[in-house]
Design a protein that fits this description.
Helix content: under 10%
Amino acid sequence: MRYFYYFLAFTFFSLQFSFSQTTLLDQDFESESTGTIGTSSGSPPYQLDLSFDGDCNGTASGWNVSTSNGYSASCSSCSNKRARISYYISSCAQDHWLYTATFTPTQSTVSVGFNYGYDDYDSGAGEDNFDVYLLNVTTSSYTSLLSLSSDAENATYSNSSVSVSAGNSYRLVFRYRGQYDNGATVDNILVTEESTDPLITVGSAITGLDYDNGYGPSTSQSTTVSGVNLTANIVLSAPTNFEISSDNTSFSSSVSLTPSSGAVSSTTIYARLKSGASVNNYSGNITCTSTGATNKTIALSGEVNEVYYVSTTGINSNDGLSWENAFLTLTQAISSASPGSAIYISDGTFSNDAEITINKSLTIKGNSREETIFDGTSSGANEGLFIITSDNVTIRNLTIQDYSLNSTDEFEGGAAVRIGAA
């Protein structure tokens, strides 16, 4: 049976505008020893026992660091170590205060967040409460953030606009009061504020800026750049052998982004490997700078592939590196090419190739589907054209016709192309 194939393309592809935050307090208890939390304010976190109840047993009935929750005080977002307090004895009226380390904001508002769980066994058995305060250490004043007298398990507290006085010292305070109560759990305590420092944010690296030798530049690819709190332009500088653009039309060695009200919104930046580079692998970093900001980089990489040429007027004793010195047969081009190379084939009918093994990653490109033809009329009765035994092989823009294959080889894929067997 005779087969007629058209190859348009046969290829496979593998296929931050940001707010600047300063962390003021980050307490997840992972660096704390398990067991009872101490009482020294010089070694936070620390606790105070204000129970004043002879049936309680000091801090033994208070806050401790553990890998489990307070009794019945579930906290699904708490992980590994956390602070907890549990029911002690029914005659103990617990009143324990857990203090964090101090922090000093430079702005008038801060964001406060934490995960917690609280279980109130019997709401009618006295003053059972879980309260969270913001303590202004400088003025010895308390601001209530959270006050619970009923169950709140697997919960999260988040407030992005807690008022503070810049320059004052603060702590967060977690107070548990319970008599015949169950317990509480706290973890992932985080206090942040908006930073006024200039900040540049960049997107992901770009790879695959490749082209065939003599056919540059590469196709461009994009990433992003943004900035906040800026006092000057963001200047992007391309590495050697690459060029960049903000409009994907005009490419150069640098791009300057002008802030509006101190900010550059997320801006698409295009990069490509320059035309005229020699066969090689290339890499480097786009450097992004602005006055007062930490420099950021975006990694680029690409490759210029060697190209071999095949023509109906070629000679196999040529070097195959230009149309003027093209090979006559595709077999010779494949034999000469190194992995990753491209082979360009002129228009014309090629009837002198059969049973070609492709055992390396190559891109084979005909000049046009209609005019670049591999004809098997004069091939043997049991000969096909391509036997592909390598990954990453691309065949495009050519026609394969009139090859026959009568073999019962279990690996055969057809008269034109067999994959996986020589």
